[in-house]
Each structure stands twice: as C-alpha cells, then as structure tokens.
Amino acid sequence: MDVKQRSNLLESSCLFPPPSGVKLSYGTAGFRTDASILQSTMFRMGILAALRSLKTHSVIGLMITASHNKVSDNGVKIADPCGGMLSQHWEPFSDELANAPDPQTLLLLIVEFVKKENIPFDGAFTAEILLGRDTRPSGESLLEAARQGVSSIVGAVAHDMGILTTPQLHWMVRARNKGLKATESDYFEQLLSSFRCLMDLIPNESKMDEIEDRLIVDGANGVGGEKLEVIKKMLSGLVIEVHNTGKEGGILNERVGADFVQKEKVVPHGFGSNHDGIRCASLDGDADRLVYFSLASNSSNKIDLVDGDKILSLFAVFIKEQLSILEGDMKGNNNYKARLGVVQTAYANGASTDYLKHLGLEVVLTPTGVKYLHARAAQYDIGIYFEANGHGTILFSEHYLSWLEAKNTELSSISQGSELQKAALRLLAVSNLINQAVGDALSGLLLVEAILRHMGWSIHRWNELYQDLPSRQLKVKVVDRTAVVTANAETVVVSPPGLQEAINAEIAKYNKGRSFVRPSGTEDVVRVYAEASTQEEADSLANSVAELVDRFLGVGSF
C-alpha cells in the first residue's frame, strides 16, 4: 500500500468520525442500529467492500437496510461473490474497522489486514462494488458515505443500483460474478419467465375456485410493496392486490410486515373482515421474508398463520413429486438420482419436522442462523431451507443443474411433451425462479402461487398439511451467556454439567414435549424454547426449563 493510498484513507476518514461511546458488532444481520450514528460505519464498510473485492477479484455488494426494524434504524450488510453473506472469516475485521476510535488506528488496522490477507494493490484488478438501499429516508445519505468509503481505495468503483430489495442486490452480485446480465429488469425478467413456464406446465385437471385467483399482499410499507407493484403489471394468471405499499402514508414496519404478522399472529394494518376467506401474504421491510395467512373464523383480527415451515413443506412436496416422476421411469443412458435435503433449525415446529420425515425426506438440523442453514443446504443436489420467520430458499448444485439440462435435451428428442420432460422443465424453472443467493420474498411468493395452482390447493388445504404443536419462547437473564455450551445443532447442553439431564427430566413429564436452551448471540440471556401437545403444557414446560436455567446460571429473575 503506497503513500498515496495511505494519505487517501487518512484524509477521507477524517470526514466520518465514529460516534463516541458506541460499540457495534457485525452479526447475521450485518450492522444495525439507529441511523443517526451510522455515517462512519457506512464509510468504513465501503472500504471493507472494496478490500473484499480486491481480495476475491470479484464484484461485491453493499446493501443499506435494517430489514424489519423500525424506520428510524438502518444498517448495512455485505454480499460476497456468490451473492451470500460476508465470509465469517472477515467479520472480526469488520468489527475492528467499525469501532476504530480515530483515523490513525483505522489506517493501521487496514494496513495490517491487507498484509495478513495478501490483498493486492498492484492495480491489476479494479475493485467493483454494487450499492443498494431500501426506502428508509436515511438511506440516501448513508449510501453516499459508503460510496466515499469505496472511493477512498484508489481505483475502486461504486455503482449505485438505486432502491432495491435486499435479495435483488444479492441476486445482482451473484449474476455479475457468473458473467450474466444483472440489472433490475433482468431480475424481473428471470422471475417472470420462470413463473410463466411453471404456469404453462400446470396439469389441466388442477383447478382452483374463483376466490383463489386473488392474492392480497401486505408490503410492510417498504421496498417489497413497491417492487411487487412493478411485477403485478407484467403478470397474467394471477391477480395481486398490494396493501401497505408505503404510498398510502403508512410507516415502515409499524403494525405491518412479515415479522409483525408471524410474531403477533394478528392481521396487519389495512386488513379486516372484508378479506375473510382470501389468501393473504406479508413481506418484511426489505422483502427477504415471506409468510402467508388467512383471517381466522369468528375473529376480527386473529389469523391462521402459514409460516416458513409450511412454505418449506409446500416446496418439498412439489420438488419430491417432480423428482419421483423424473426418476420413476429412468429411460435413456443419462440417469441420476438426486439427493434432496431439507435443512431446519431446532426452532422449526416439531410437527413440521415429523411431517417432512414421514414423507421420506432427509431432514437435518443446523445451529440457528442463515449462514449455517445455507451452507448445509449447499451440500445437496437440491437443498431446501427455511426458518419459521419466513426466510429461506432452495439451492441447486451446479452439477445437478448440468445433469438436468442434459436430461431435458435428451427427453426433448425422444419424448417431447412427456411427463418426464415436464418434470425436468419444472425443476429447471424452479431453479431460475427461486433466488439461490438468499431468501427472497418476491421470488418465493411467485413460486408458492405457481405450486398452489399446480396442486389445486387453497390456502386452507395447504395449512392442513400438519397441525403445529403449541410452543412458547422465553429468555432468562444470566451473568455470563458464554457459560452455556451446546452441541447437536443447539439441541443439547454440554455445559454447565447436569443442566441437560435436568431439562430431559422435565421434558419427560409432557406429551410430545420438546425443549432446548441456547445462549443469545447479542446479550447476556439464555433463550428457552418449548413445545408440547397443548399450549398450557408448552407454557408449563417453558417455565420449568427457564427456572432450571435460572437455578444453574441466572440472577434470580425466575
């Protein structure tokens, strides 16, 4: 790193002093806090993105959003070359950058990291960053700070992609690094052409009654509602009404959005008895989560929730059906049995896990967090992962997609229009419709709609796949959360000794009882999850386990 580069970094960083008394940590959601104290963090993440681009010789993304947080918050996350989240290996460096107290310390950190990582500054590769932001008022000035951070690395180029959903930016990064077209219009075209393909392949006998042609979507007063308005103008065969687009004066994420609907299990603002019997969906603030719901009978505001576990189950049923057709009559020489896997965390409702296993599917658990789910799903030919909150996607391996393309070509020459070829075409369409970089509410919604039509299912039929077990979540204040060590995807406590045995003894008292505890990643609390055959039993089990945690580790709050 030459004198000019060092001088650039020192001079520009003086313009963005860090807030005093604030310590930030880069987690699954990136950095996220009150927007008024994020200027220096955005500038520094612009630097990090440029360094990551130089290191990987790839296009990197920087998305400014706070997802389902309140409108006064904002945040930033980095998209790696594959379109996924920033490598965990770089997270400690991002924390150090964000919290450096002055320009000199910042420069020293950068110089040392560049040396340690062998990041080239020889001018052979130009760092390139795609910048995106959601609809928050603070986004414009924060994007400018990020742009200046990128520019402080000599030769680095920042492209302002405008107002986007988080999944759109991740999709663009992945597409650019695969050498594909990567504008917003390319994103829309890929989704819509794949959706049309799936609609064209719906069996003639699949009929839905008239009311089911209508879908009403809660846009969380965010960017997802805006983008869905664009999509619906290009759609045929699906009538979408978008409420809470942000244009009606509503406030982002205030009593609206997937996070609110999933946690509170009540209708979002703008929905009521006039929507009784109609299929409804809710996006979150940056459109990377999706849940469905219908109004509960005999209630003005309660809902029957169709969460991420049920979306996963719908996708799994459909993909298993297509694989069964394709692999059930293997003709020709080019035969291959795909390995299909379903990935959940321990927070997935036990009824969903049982249902998926009864279908004969391979179900595995990972620790909580998208980075774990995504990495495990990538180990399959087709890997499906979802969290109950509505975040998830489907991953297809490059090897399997190559085989599928070749199989489709073979079938088109020997059995054009056969059920086998239709199954191959459906799977190829799913691989293009779903966003394989990250969970995407818009692409997920279109896939749900296509599959419901293919199956001929109403939202009520879909919701009856299985009955969720009642559950309860609690948290217990502890002196030191690191005293809790877990194993087996956070389902078993290894330390402190004796706690897991005590939990097992409590679980044994309840019909269909299940409970686990895990330390919070951000605060000195231990989170408790419990489920059982009735809500009363789930509540009782959760309280019993919380008391055990408090007895072993707590501060006497239970």
From TrEMBL:
Binds 1 Mg(2+) ion per subunit. Belongs to the phosphohexose mutase family. Mg(2+) binds at residues 67, 284, 286, 288. InterPro entries: A-D-PHexomutase_a/b/a-I, A-D-PHexomutase_a/b/a-I/II/III, A-D-PHexomutase_C, A-D-PHexomutase_C_sf, AMG1_II, AMG1_III, PAGM. It comes from the Eukaryota. It comes from Acer negundo. GO terms for molecular function: metal ion binding; phosphoacetylglucosamine mutase activity. Signal peptide: none annotated. Its EC number is 5.4.2.3. Residues 488-547 form the Alpha-D-phosphohexomutase C-terminal domain. Keywords: Isomerase, Magnesium, Metal-binding, Phosphoprotein. This is Phosphoacetylglucosamine mutase. The keyword Magnesium applies. Interconverts GlcNAc-6-P and GlcNAc-1-P. Residues 57-88, 126-177 form the Alpha-D-phosphohexomutase alpha/beta/alpha domain.
